[in-house]
């Protein structure tokens, strides 16, 4: 008999673990997306393609800790919107309204940040919470519509995205409008999320305590989903609404709570994005892109909080790569968006990949078994 | 003589299981060849390979001695192979005629040649006594008639190798009798039939030979005239099976579950699907609602359990009026429910077995503290249920419910509901689609519960089961109570007349 080697062990591990196969499928999607990016760069400008490509991959190491800090800074809102989408998804709801909840949260955070200067050193905390609460309210609306009137949450939350966007424009104009530059005032310094020790640690990057919020929310959602009776109910409703009803669970309550929590997380993302120096609420009619990127990150992270955290950081690294790409080569940063889109496209084929991976592994195992018998 | 169908060494794998492992099957011309096996034994997979729905990884198929490559159902049709699926493939809003010619239309410059088709259909239906109105809409005819349409569809396509997938599951005893006659007439004409079934009586009645599958492997092929039911069951399950169950005398206690004047309406059509239904169930008895599928039993159970609101009537559980209580309240007062659709209602398929076993009582103190699930308590409860109810799965308590076989899923649900220790248990078709071994197990458990003094309301379509378990039988027809019977003083034939609406007792 041939000894069992680590290769056998590894094959067994993948064959018995559906999560491992799924993760592998996500990684393949990422590699595939990057290759698509590379091919486009080769078509556009073959001479600089490889230099540009390595910038995308390794841009985050370009300026030492500063670029790593900036990467995380970019990643934080994406992680949060990703968590928002993922959490709703685990309850069987597609929260395409993350951008609206984010916008709604952002406005209230900035409003508190501009006006309530009497709060002193608690100012930023209150502004942050205001964003979360506003987002929660905005998420609760489609949740209630779904629970009580069976209105499809996708339709309701898409519409509410526009309502939130125009509401924000209207409210900015009437309350915190900076006439001279035609945009909102920035939050008072006391309302800006502190950078604390990140300032020195990351050599003056934009990274702030928002990172802790992202970590904390990831941990909380992970614990809720994995360990609590509440999470047990949410997942049960998500997997099988009929069986949950049969078991006596209150699916309406669960749907509303799931959407409210998802909204709160998106609202926090909005607050963190705008409670910084140099970024202002505008009166342009654009939906904020971060809400949609959250959907992509949630998919890539397999709708698990930890997965979303990792996928969000990966997204941040691409963003920073895109930033340097623009600085150092002729390529436009939109390439990054194309790569992300390709990754999502490919991960939508995840099931297909999972089957291929499974079959390949199985074949290798059979081949090894046969080799053993001979 | 060359067999009309030969399948040699068929192997078909799905991720994680080998559904067919080197199976050999040979069917002679003009015979009815039964394919017997438990659920998950690989019967349907094998036939799907023959019909071109799946492709086997290994093995050869010979039709009339010629090796063939069947890539899709069209290839199968060309070779004269037809199949009546368990769930009919008919367009509800089309007429019988349209359904029969669908996909096989004769056209003249783009226009359908319906008159010729009609003539052919009328001829076929007279020849085989498949009485049917070609212009009736599918949605207006009975399930038995729909099955005839499926048979005519095969004949219209000149199929002479006919596959029937569990054809009697949806029929009344009278309709089964008819079907058996039709099948015999078909083979007399030189056609060959493969009959997928797990009902031993049917095999004895019509089949010439039987091939037994177990866990994806072929066990044996026997001449039916040399085989007894006991023998077949033993080979199918792999151990001896009891056919007669010991049953203590009927000694009912107090009434614990009662329903009066229950009326429910279909919200779309406003038709009453349950009207003025009434029954009582006492401790220590099994009351069975018998009836053909689709006569309001499903809706009645939804009403009783709270899954759907009722329009009128009173439901009393342990002396409390629960007519309008939410599901959770009914569960807590003491109602257990083994649902008809175990995958839709009974289980969360993407949860582990352990998680499924606490579906009703995850919030009880024994499974959680301060909102945090107690993994260990849940695991050990799961182990207990797995042991006690012989629930088998690949990975014990951590197996995904989805990966378990139908019989084991059902055992898990049964175990969970029994462990809740409620006074009343509603069991809806608890043995549907299960094999002899699992049926035996579930019947024994239900009788044991009855002897412990539980009140059991059984809803069943299988008359064998009704006769074997019931203390009292109520027949339901078109949503109404049409008669109550003592199983000792009635026969399946009498019940059949009430179930089909030919007779009714006036209350």
Offer a quick outline of the entry.
The complex is a heterodimer of chains A (374) and B (507). Chain A is an all-alpha fold and 374 residues long.
Mean pLDDT of chain A: 88
Shape of chain B: globular
In what order do the strands lie side by side in the largest sheet of chain B?
6-9-10-3-11-12
> Ends of chain B: how far apart?
61 Å
Q: What is the helix tally of chain B? A: 17
Helix content of chain B: 25-40%
Helix content of chain A: over 70%
Radius of gyration of chain B: 24 Å
* CATH level-3 fold name of the largest domain in chain A: ABC transporter involved in vitamin B12 uptake, BtuC
CATH architecture of the largest domain in chain A: Orthogonal Bundle
Question: In terms of topology, how is this protein built?
Answer:
The complex is a heterodimer of chains A (374) and B (507).
Chain A lengths: L5 H11 L1 H27 L1 H13 L6 H26 L7 H18 L7 H27 L3 H23 L1 E2 L4 E2 L13 H4 L8 H18 L1 H11 L1 H6 L4 H24 L15 H11 L4 H24 L5 H15 L1 H24 L1
Antiparallel strand pairs in A: 1-2
Helix pairs in contact in A: 1-2, 1-16, 2-3, 2-15, 2-16, 3-14, 4-9, 4-12, 4-13, 4-14, 5-6, 5-7, 5-12, 5-13, 6-7, 6-12, 9-10, 9-14, 10-12, 13-14, 14-15
Chain B lengths: L4 E10 L2 E11 L4 E6 L5 H8 L7 E6 L2 E3 L4 H6 L2 E4 L11 H6 L5 E2 L2 E2 L1 H14 L15 H14 L4 E5 L7 H16 L3 E6 L2 H7 L2 E6 L2 E7 L5 H9 L17 E11 L6 E11 L2 E6 L6 H9 L6 E6 L2 E2 L5 H7 L1 E4 L3 H5 L6 H5 L10 E2 L2 E2 L1 H15 L16 H14 L4 E5 L7 H16 L3 E6 L2 H7 L2 E6 L2 E6 L6 H8 L8
Can you characterise this structure?
The complex is a heterodimer of chains A (374) and B (507). By secondary structure, chain A is mainly α. Chain A has two domains: 26-45 and 334-374, no CATH class; 64-329, ABC transporter involved in vitamin B12 uptake, BtuC (Orthogonal Bundle). Chain A has 16 helices and two strands. Chain A has helices at residues 6-16, 18-44, 46-58, 65-90, 98-115, 123-149, 153-175, 198-201, 210-227, 229-239, 241-246, 251-274, 290-300, 305-328, 334-348, 350-373; strands spanning 177-178, 183-184. A two-stranded antiparallel ribbon of chain A has the order 1-2. Chain A is globular and about 75 Å long. By secondary structure, chain B is α/β, with parallel strands linked by helices.
């Amino acid at each position: 008999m041939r000894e069992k080697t680590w290769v056998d062990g590894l094959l067994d591990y993948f064959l018995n673990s559906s999560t491992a196969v799924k993760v592998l499928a996500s990684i393949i999607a990422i590699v595939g997306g990057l290759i698509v990016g590379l091919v486009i760069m080769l078509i556009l400008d073959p001479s600089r393609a490889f230099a540009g490509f390595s910038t995308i991959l390794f841009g985050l190491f370009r300026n030492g800790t500063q670029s790593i800090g900036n990467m995380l800074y970019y990643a934080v809102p994406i992680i949060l919107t990703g968590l928002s989408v993922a959490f709703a998804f685990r309850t069987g709801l597609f929260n395409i309204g993350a951008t609206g909840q984010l916008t709604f949260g952002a406005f209230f955070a900035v409003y508190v940040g501009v006006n309530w200067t009497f709060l002193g050193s608690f100012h930023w905390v209150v502004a942050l919470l205001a964003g979360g609460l506003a987002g929660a309210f905005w998420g609760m609306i489609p949740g209630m519509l779904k629970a009580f009137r069976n209105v499809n949450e996708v339709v309701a939350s898409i519409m509410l995205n526009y309502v939130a966007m125009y509401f924000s424009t209207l409210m900015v104009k009437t309350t915190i409008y900076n006439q001279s530059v035609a945009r909102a005032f920035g939050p008072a310094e006391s309302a800006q999320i502190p950078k604390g020790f990140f300032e020195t640690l990351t050599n003056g990057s934009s990274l702030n305590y928002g990172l802790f919020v992202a970590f904390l929310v990831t941990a909380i959602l992970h614990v809720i989903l994995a360990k609590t009776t509440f999470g047990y109910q949410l997942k049960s409703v998500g997997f099988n609404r009929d069986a949950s009803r049969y078991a006596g669970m209150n699916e309406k309550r669960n749907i509303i709570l799931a959407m409210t929590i998802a909204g709160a997380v998106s609202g926090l993302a909005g607050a963190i994005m705008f409670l910084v120096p140099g970024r202002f609420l505008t009166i342009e009619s654009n939906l904020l892109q971060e809400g949609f990127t959250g959907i992509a990150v949630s998919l890539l992270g397999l709708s698990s909080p930890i997965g979303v955290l990792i996928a969000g950081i990966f997204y941040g690294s691409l963003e920073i790569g895109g930033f340097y790409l623009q600085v150092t080569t002729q390529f436009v940063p939109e390439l990054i968006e194309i790569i992300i889109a390709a990754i999502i496209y490919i991960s939508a084929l995840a099931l297909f990949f999972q089957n291929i991976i499974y079959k390949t592994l199985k074949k290798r195992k059979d081949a090894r078994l046969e080799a053993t018998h001979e | 003589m060359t067999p009309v169908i030969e399948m040699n060494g068929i192997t078909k794998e799905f991720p994680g299981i080998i559904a067919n492992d080197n199976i050999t099957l040979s069917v002679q011309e003009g015979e009815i060849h039964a394919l017997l096996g438990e659920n998950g034994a690989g019967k349907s997979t094998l036939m799907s390979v023959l019909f071109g729905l799946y492709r086997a990884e290994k093995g050869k198929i010979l039709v009339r001695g010629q090796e063939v490559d069947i890539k899709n159902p069209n290839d199968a049709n060309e070779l004269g192979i037809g199949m009546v699926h368990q769930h009919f493939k008919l367009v509800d809003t089309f007429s019988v005629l349209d359904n029969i010619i669908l996909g096989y239309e004769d056209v003249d410059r783009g226009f359908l040649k319906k008159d010729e088709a009609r003539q052919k259909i009328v001829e076929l239906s007279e020849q085989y006594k498949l009485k049917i109105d070609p212009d009736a809409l599918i949605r207006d005819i009975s399930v038995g008639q729909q099955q005839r349409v499926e048979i005519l569809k095969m004949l219209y396509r000149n199929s002479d190798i006919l596959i029937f997938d569990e054809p009697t599951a949806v029929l009344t005893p009278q309709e089964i009798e008819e079907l058996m006659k039709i099948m015999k007439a078909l083979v007399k004409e030189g056609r060959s039939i493969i009959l997928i079934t797990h009902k031993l009586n049917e095999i004895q009645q019509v089949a010439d030979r039987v091939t037994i599958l177990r866990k994806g492997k072929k066990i044996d092929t026997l001449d039916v005239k040399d085989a007894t039911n006991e023998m077949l069951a033993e080979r199918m399950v792999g151990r001896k099976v009891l056919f007669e169950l010991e049953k203590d005398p009927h000694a009912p206690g107090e009434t614990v579950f009662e329903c009066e004047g229950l009326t429910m309406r279909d919200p779309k059509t406003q038709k009453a699907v349950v009207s003025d239904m009434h029954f009582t169930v006492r401790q220590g008895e099994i009351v069975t609602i018998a009836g053909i599928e689709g006569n309001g039993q499903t809706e009645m159970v939804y009403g009783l359990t709270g899954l759907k609101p009722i329009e009128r009537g009173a439901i009393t559980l342990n002396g409390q009026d629960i007519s309008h209580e939410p599901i959770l309240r009914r569960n807590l007062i003491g109602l257990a429910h083994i649902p008809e659709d175990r995958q839709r209602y009974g289980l969360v398929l993407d949860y582990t077995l352990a998680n499924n076993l606490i579906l009703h009582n995850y919030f009880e103190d024994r499974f959680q503290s301060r909102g945090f699930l107690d993994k260990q308590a849940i695991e050990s409860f799961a182990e207990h249920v797995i042991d006690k109810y012989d629930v088998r799965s690949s990975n014990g308590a951590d197996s995904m419910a989805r990966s378990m076989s139908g019989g084991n899923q059902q055992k898990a649900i049964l175990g969970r509901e029994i462990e809740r220790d409620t006074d009343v248990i509603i069991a809806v078709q608890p043995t549907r689609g299960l094999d002899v071994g699992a049926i035996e197990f579930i019947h024994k458990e239900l009788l044991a519960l009855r002897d412990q003094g539980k009140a059991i309301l059984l809803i069943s379509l299988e008359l064998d089961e009704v006769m074997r378990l019931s203390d009292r039988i109520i027949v339901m027809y078109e949503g109404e109570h049409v008669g109550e019977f003592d199983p000792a003083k009635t026969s399946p034939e009498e019940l059949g007349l009430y179930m089909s609406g030919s007779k009714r007792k006036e209350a």
